[in-house]
Write a structure and sequence with these properties.
By secondary structure, this protein is mostly beta strands. The chain has a domain of 42 residues. The protein is 0% helix and 31% strand. The strands form 2 sheets. Strands 2-1-5 form a 3-stranded antiparallel sheet, with no helix packed on it. A two-stranded antiparallel sheet has the order 3-4. The radius of gyration is 13 Å and the shape is elongated. It starts with 7 loop residues before the first strand and ends with a strand. It binds zinc ion (ZN). The site of zinc ion (ZN) has 8 residues, from loops.
């Protein structure tokens, strides 16, 4: 199995949408905080598992994260 197709997610900055990093599905288990090198915005990236219900409680910066 050399070329196993792996689904990668892209984490982009909330502010300027710069690509912060890529990660394979399942590689993230918890919250990752990363500061954007371009606009210095702090981004919280959470793993978005398929079985995880969306937590849209405190509406701050809801739409950013993994895609
Ligand atoms: Zn940015």
């Amino acid at each position: 199995m050399d070329n196993q197709w792996v689904l990668t997610l892209e984490a982009r900055c909330c502010e300027c949408r710069r690509l912060l990093f890529k990660v394979t599905v399942g590689a993230l288990r918890g919250l990752v905080q990363i500061k954007c090198p371009r606009c210095n915005a702090c981004n919280d990236v959470r793993p978005d598992g398929p079985n995880q219900p969306r937590q849209a409680s405190n509406g701050t910066g809801a739409a950013c994260g993994l895609r």
